[in-house]
Every structure is written in structure tokens, then in C-alpha cells.
Amino acid sequence: MKNLLIVSATEAEILPLLRFLEANFRTVAQHSFQNERYSVDILISGVGMMSTAYNLGVALARNTYDAALQAGIGGCFDMQLPLGSVLGVASECYADLGAENRGAYIDIYELGFLQKDTYPFTDGKLLNLKPFEAGMGLDLVPAISVNTVSGHSPTIAARAGRYGAVLESMEGIAFHYACLQQQLPFLQIRAISNYVTPRDRDAWQIGLAIRNLNQHLQDFFSK
Q: What are the residue ranges of helices labelled H in the chain?
């Protein structure tokens, strides 16, 4: 039996999976389930890097896991990908940690506070070279993590050009960092809820993204 940790920023993002596990697995504790193949713990980490880092750190200190999944929704820079698409994350990096110098952004590496190849970073990125279950059949793409979601055209253009990312979230880098430090197999999964554009909630498809994300997870466990 594999011990698996599933991390989500909010319960709403994985509520269908919780209902599926309650119906098809044995409940051993709140947000903890088992069948003949997996022991699954669900961690609702909270929104943002700080909350994710703390709650994930507590979970990894208390229990031993064979692998971890982070499941959530996120914004997408590539408008050729349909809303609701489910993707895995190949790499994460900071996109707003640093300083502003008038109209210019200076990242943490240019400031000299962190070297780009300081473990577990590789050229400023946190790579997932051995994703859990080989990426669970998903295309793997680069992502960035931010404290302030992109919603201003100059910011969007600068981040898209600087990092070449496909996805944007507020928690991914904390998850990658913790798993790499623990040498724990992992995979971050994101469903596209919106394109990264000037803020327009009427164009978002949060419900579709949550349905597709959870269907992919349910299909995995059904197999």
C-alpha cells in the first residue's frame, strides 16, 4: 500500500474527489482514506506560499509518505489551450520575489540573496524530473508562483517574456520546494480556470476547471 498525500489550497477545488473517496474508500479519519492499494491523506493547505509551506511542513513532519500530489486550478498564459485543460507542472519558479527599481523588477538572484543553482534549484527553477506515476498521463509544462496574481498588461507581458511559463498559481513553488527537500516523489496538477489577462471574472471557468481536475483524479484512483 502506498501512502499518498494530496494537497489543495482550498477544499472547494477537490470537493468532488473528497466525495469520491468517501464513497469508494474506507474512511479512517477526517480527510484520510484507504483501499487495498492506497492510503490517502487530504491536506487543505490554505491559499498562498506561506500557508502552504507551513501546513505542508507540519504534515510531512508528522507522517511518512511515498508520494505527494498538489491539485488545484490556475491561470494560463497560453490562450491556445482550452479552459478546463488539466496539466502537470514540470518546473516552478518565483516570479515576484525581489525588489522594484522604479519600473524594473529585480529578482532574488539579481539581488544576490540566492544563487540560481543552490539546491534544490536548477538555474532558478524547481524541476520535477521524476514525476509521480510518470505525470499521470498529463502534459507537463512550466509554471510560476506569485503572491499577487497577474492582472495588469505590462506585468503579464513581462512575466510571460521573462519566464516562458504556461501556468500561474500562488502555491506551487512551496509544494515543489518541500517535496524536493524531502526527496519525495511528487506531481503538481492544475486545471486551467482562466487565461492570464487583465482581470475579467466573467470570462473565468472555475466550475469547469474543478470538474475536469477532479475527474482526472477520480479516473486515476478508479484504475
A: 11-24, 49-62, 153-163, 172-182, 206-222
